[in-house]
Amino acid sequence: MAERPSTPYRPSAAERAERRAFEALLALPKSARKRAAGRPHVVDGGALDPDIATGLKVLGRVGGKELDERTVDDARTALAAESWMFAGEPADVASVEQVTIDGAAHGADGDIPAFLYRPNPSPVTVVGKHADAARTPGTARPCVVYFHGGGWVLGSAQTHDAVARALCADGEVIVLNVDYRRAPEHVFPAAVDDAVAAFRWAHANAERLGIDPERIAVAGDSAGGNLSAVVAQETTRHGGPKPALQMLFVPVTDLTLPRSDSYERFSSGYFLTRANMDWYEATYLTGSPTLGGSSDVDIDALRADPRVSPLRATDLDALVAAGLPPAYVAVAGFDPLRDEGIAYARMLERAGVATTLRVHTDAVHPFINILATDLGRRCMAEAVGAMRTALGVDPA
């Protein structure tokens, strides 16, 4: 039986007023917005975007407790509220359809709810290396299988609806937005199993869905970026179809110890905190809010598992020889996960995988979701451009 799919967030009157105030501030001239943000904040030569600085102030006023200080249900509601606050106006798409992925047929335990987005009709010309793959140009479209962020615990397809819509509308691709199983109800490797199953389902049903099976990408932010990297590795490792592209936004790539320098430098004050990450990790791996809550689990072995920490894959040479998909990796300058995202991109590059690394020095985690701001829209536009090129969608 399918799990119940996520539902849209219903903001309170106070939250609606807060969002209107934030949007009014963003509509001011850039000079006025800079004054509202206060003194420029510079770390490692990067200056924090003034609109993002203002957004962090807004969160400071309305956020209350940190996510890791709440119950899971309360934290899920809080993240949904924050996602709604900064999502901006949703992009127009032709349709959004609720679908059920047959997970059991593709390596997961049961059905997986998801949403399928279709772009508005337009002539689509296939260019580049994929031109021969489209038998009838304009009929079969590329697809992006999207995995939402939220530390494998929070977030949903609905919290990332604006991201899915933007990818669909601007990229002229079909998007499958997946409601994979979350911890603590379903600990590792449930989310991995669902993510792999979702990709395989999209490929197996490509003709029925109007998808070009040779142009299916995986994408995601934070924990979803982690799942995208893992899907790329797992499908390459075990044979069969694999993604045409892995798009990783502020990905988690390494939970082994010791943590990176950026974990310490940006441990608090920039939306994602180290305490958040510790809570996500423990909940995902053990089902407990603290690692000490489950003494029968070998935490170090779990952390080093490449399905948890894809940066630690020991069979990288074999994966590359088997055709590990090209990667687009985008990280934020003010993010605990910055260094491990950069390390993953550089590891792929050194191994011979075609990789684009984009460091948004003025951004915080997770910039791809902050589409109300100029920065969020700019980062999305860059990613969509790279995606269109990689998937052979005519830029015209």
Automatic annotation (TrEMBL):
Give the InterPro entries listed for this entry: AB_hydrolase_3, AB_hydrolase_fold, GDXG_lipolytic_enzyme, Lipase_GDXG_HIS_AS
Extract the Pfam families matched here.
Answer: Abhydrolase_3
What terms describe the molecular function in GO for this protein?
A: hydrolase activity
Keyword tags: Hydrolase
Source superkingdom: Bacteria
Q: Which residues form the Alpha/beta hydrolase fold-3 domain?
A: 144-368
Q: Of which family is this protein a member?
A: Belongs to the 'GDXG' lipolytic enzyme family.
Name the record gives this protein: Alpha/beta hydrolase
